[in-house]
Amino acid sequence: MKILIVEDNTDLLDDMVMFLSSYGYSCEKSKTYSEASEKIELYSYDLFIIDITLPDGSGLNLLELIKSRNTKAGIIIVTAKNAIEDKIKGLDLGADDYLTKPFHKEELNARIRSILRRNKFEGNKEVIFNEIRIDIAAVQTFINDNKIILTKKEYDLLLYFIDNKNRMITKESIAEHLWGDHFDQADNFDFIYNHIKNLRKKILANGGKDYINSLYGMGYKFSE
Fold first, then answer.
1. What is the DSSP code (8-state) at residue 65?
2. Quick one: how far is CA 113 from the chain centroid?
3. Distance in angstroms (rounded) separating the CA atoms of residues 178 and 51
4. 3-state percent breakdown (helix, strand, coil) of the chain, nearest 5
5. Does the N-terminal peptide bond of residue 55 adopt cis geometry, omega within 30 degrees of 0?
6. Nearest Cα residue to 112 out of 156, 168, 46
7. How confident is the chain (224 residues) per 10-residue block, as mean pLDDT?
8. What span, in angstroms and rounded, lies between the C-alpha atoms of 23 and 73?
9. Annotation: CATH topology of 2-119
10. Residue ranges per structural domain of the chain
11. In the CATH scheme, what architecture does the domain 126-222 have?
C-alpha cells in the first residue's frame, strides 16, 4: 500500500514515515503544497495523509485536486486543535477521516486500517448479510428494508463484524478498531459490552436475528 504524507513539520513527518513503514506501508513525503500537488498529478497512491496548514498553500486545495482526479484513495486530514471549520470543510470535500494535533501514532494506524476496511467494499454500494443491508455511500443501515438508527460506533462495529464474519474477534481487536490506542486507558471492556448490547438490541427490535455470538473468555463471532 502506497501512502503520500503531506506535512511541513519535519520531525513529525519523519516520525510518521518511520512508524508506518514499520507496518509495511510504502510511504512518500512532501513538505509543501507545490511538491505534493506535483506528486498527486504524476503518481498514484492508495491513501493520503494531509496537513491542512502548509507554508505555500492549503491542504484543502490538495484534497480538491485529489478528488478531481476521480481517485478512490483514502484521505485523512490533519488539523489544528481548534480548527473546526477546516474539519467540516475537509469532510464535506470528501475526506474519509481527520486527526487533530497532537495525536498518537497508533491512532493514526487504526484510522488507516479502518479506511482500508471500508475500501474493501468499494464498487459495492451496499453490503448485505441476510436481512441486514448497509448503504455504504449514505452510511445507513436497514433491517428487512427498514432503516434503523445506529451511532457511529455501532455502525463501525456492525461493518467490522460483517467484514470478519465467521471469524473469532477478540475484545482487544474490537476496542482497537473503535478507539485506536486510547482503549488501553480503560479499566475494563464494559464499553465494548455496552455497544454490542445496544447494537444487538436494535437489530432484534427491528426483526433481525442475533448473529453476535459470545465466545467465553475469547471474544465474539458474527455468524449464523
1. H
2. 6
3. 23
4. 45, 25, 30
5. no
6. 46
7. 92 93 88 94 90 92 89 87 83 88 86 76 76 86 94 88 87 72 54 89 94 88 90
8. 19
9. Rossmann fold (3.40.50)
10. 2-119, 126-222
11. Orthogonal Bundle (1.10)
* Three-state DSSP state, 87: helix
**Residue-level pLDDT at 61:** 94
- For residue 149 the three cell numbers come to 438508527
The pLDDT, as a whole number, for residue 6 is 96
Report, in angstroms and rounded to the nearest whole number, the Rg of the chain calculated over CA atoms. Answer: 19
- E strands, 91-161, are 97-100, 126-129, 132-135, 140-143, 146-148
Nine-digit cell string for 15: 516520525
CA separation (Å) from 12 to 17, 56, 83, 110? 9, 18, 19, 18
Q: β-pairing, 53-54 with 57-58?
A: antiparallel
Report the predicted TM-score, pTM, of the whole model to 2 decimal places.
0.58
Pick from 128, 30, 48: nearest CA to 90: 48
C-alpha grid cell, residue 200 = 444487538
Type of residue found at 93: L
